[in-house]
Amino acid sequence: MLRLHVNIDHVATVRNARGTPYPDPVQAARVCLDAGAHGITAHLREDRRHIRDEDLRRLRHELPSGTLLNMECAATDEMQRIAKELAPQVVTLVPERREERTTEGGLDVLGGGTRLAGHVRALLDAKIKVSLFIAPDERVVRASHDLGAQQIELHTGEYAHAATPETVKFELGRLRHAAKLGRSLGLEIAAGHGLTRDNVPALMDISEIVELNIGHAMIADALFLSLAGSVKAMLAAIASPRSA
Question: Active-site residue 43, yes or no?
């Protein structure tokens, strides 16, 4: 069964825009879980532009027992310390630049060297599952496996933003090849970035993908469908092609 993890970053974005205590990201996480989401994803950025440290602490300790919390963060000493202290079920290492609007491209696994390897090892030693957010590139998939990652999350941005049918087909081919290779190496395969109810169904033909991390589109849908309705609509978009 494919898992849907909802990224609640943009609930915090709305809260921070006015400096109010609402909307509460933890309450949003509860709504998503009650509506059928399988886990919650939150990105603690260096500049704390949306999710804050206290949000993560509350997500870790106030959500129902057994809730899967995926902490996205950069591969830095500060984030490693916070992750080890909070002990979320999963840490996804992502690239991060202060000037970017959102995460752009995959983690530089090939150039990460011993520093990235050290972060991965430290998290594994703390009994935290490690995922790497990467481009669907064969060399990067193999390097992620060599580093000891247990999961890779394939960056779907190029697919999501493809402007022509030919480009869509090409990008789906890249994702399919990377997913099959990763699975053959024993990696669990997730995917995310730019995914919507419209572009998710075609992605579901790649049976190796067992998890999706989706945020912005679902929070946008919530303006019209309610947050619970957004979760249910995405679950329906995910389920239809696979059940067929």
Answer: yes
